[in-house]
Amino acid sequence: MSNRFFLDPAISTIEDDRVILSGNEAHHFVRVMRGKVGDEIILFDGSGFSYRCSVESVGKATVTAHVLETLTDNIESSIRLTVATALPKGDRQHFLVEKLAELGVARFIPLRLERSVARSDAAVAQRLRRYVVEAAKQCGRNVLMEITNEMPLTELNDFLTQQRNVTKYLLHPLSLGVVGQTTLRTILANELPKQIAVLIGPEGSFTEHEIAMALRFGFQPLDLGARILRTETACLAVASVFLTCS
Amino acid sequence: MSNRFFLDPAISTIEDDRVILSGNEAHHFVRVMRGKVGDEIILFDGSGFSYRCSVESVGKATVTAHVLETLTDNIESSIRLTVATALPKGDRQHFLVEKLAELGVARFIPLRLERSVARSDAAVAQRLRRYVVEAAKQCGRNVLMEITNEMPLTELNDFLTQQRNVTKYLLHPLSLGVVGQTTLRTILANELPKQIAVLIGPEGSFTEHEIAMALRFGFQPLDLGARILRTETACLAVASVFLTCS
Fold it and tell me: DSSP character for A28?
């Protein structure tokens, strides 16, 4: 996978059969990989297209390549999964975003909850985006996991409602006795919905008010079993189930 | 969960109703938590027993407590899952061991494979053990995930054979066309076996020879889907499925 590079539409160009790669990715090719004219590389644009290319020239900050073949194959799941939770702090953001992207999550929504512990601003968003690109390079995904702006619960609900036909789950332990709870085994007994969103609490867990709101919005409570999982573990667990058992 | 401490049988004692806690855990209580006489703490011995205690006295390096109640409840899964793989390097070991313990894996077996990248020696084993204890304290598990000595594939097979009735899977992508492959969805369509072991390759993947050996040993090839997962992600994914869908 080390010959894969992200062709950021914002800073790169494709014209006829020629591609100009610039920015971090060009730098990586030139300085880190010691790439050369004649090397074959795969450039993916993050929306599902990728281009098998041959490098024509190498500048200080750009790489020019000739497109040999346009590819549309991808390894995306048939399940479009959205994971919505409050960002954890520090390193744990990196693990979370990287692993969710690797597993094939379609979209991550940082939530502003009462017990959120980390801010989500432009600098954070940029850093998270970088993790997503790196994960895509490593794991062969040609589609970048989308990360939306941070939003509160009310906005999350509006957002998902506009998507239409999204089956919504709220991770909530059974021991709290909420009516209508389901389990993953039950869900897997049927064909999985094609669009799923899972709402997961922060480390300090949801407030009663947030739970009541989510239930009112039609999120179905989902129990993961007896062990208390940390936020990022719960996210990975539910993403693993939906994306490897579909 | 911050009042939970590990009662290491090797360095602690219980006599009648009195417990003496020493070592790291005592230090943590005294210096980090600023624990005091009269505090109520839960001490777990790692084998399933836990003791609700009241602190009687606090020394420099020991804590003496009176047992109020012996508890045998635990949150262990009905599925006894063994995960066997080559240890990844550095921080990724911590992440892997911590998350597997949190999810409820019964046993982790570090494997010596041809493409292993990290050594497993006494210092490593001690460090991994510490991660397991910390995970147990955090997530409320009263049973410590077992970590065996490092072993090669042949020894892994002997070990599992001695356990009897362990259903053995080898994580192996479908694209490699191995006959007899199954998927998680197929496995979940039936009642799960009570004892499961999953063999997962290192970052550089198994050699042909290792795969042939595992198949000969009766490990059934299991495919996780289209995306290539890193070793620790694959471990977490399969542990998540078996332990949250049972």
Answer: I
Q: Is the pLDDT of residue A174 over 70?
A: no
Query: For chain B, what are the domain ranges?
Result: 4-71, 80-244
Q: Which CATH superfamily is domain A4-71 in?
A: Hypothetical PUA domain-like; domain 1 (2.40.240.20)
Residues in B lying within 8 Å of A, measured between beta carbons: 1, 75-77, 95, 99, 102-104, 138-141, 183-185, 188, 224-230, 233, 236-238, 240-241, 243-246
* Contact between A229 and B139 using a beta-carbon 8 Å cutoff: yes
Structure tokens that stand for B56 in this block? 């009687």
Q: Could you give the 3-state DSSP secondary structure of residue B193?
A: coil
Note the pLDDT tens digit of each residue in B183-217.
Answer: 999 999 999 999 999 999 998 889 999 999 999 99
Q: Per the CB < 8 Å rule, is B236 touching A237? A: yes
Q: Are the beta carbons of A102 and A139 closer than 8 angstroms?
A: yes
Tell me which architecture the domain covering A80-244 has in CATH: 3-Layer(aba) Sandwich (3.40)
Burial profile A207-219: b = 16 or more Cβ within 10 angstroms, e = fewer: eeebbebbbebeb
Nearest to B227 among A103, A227, A228 (CB): A103
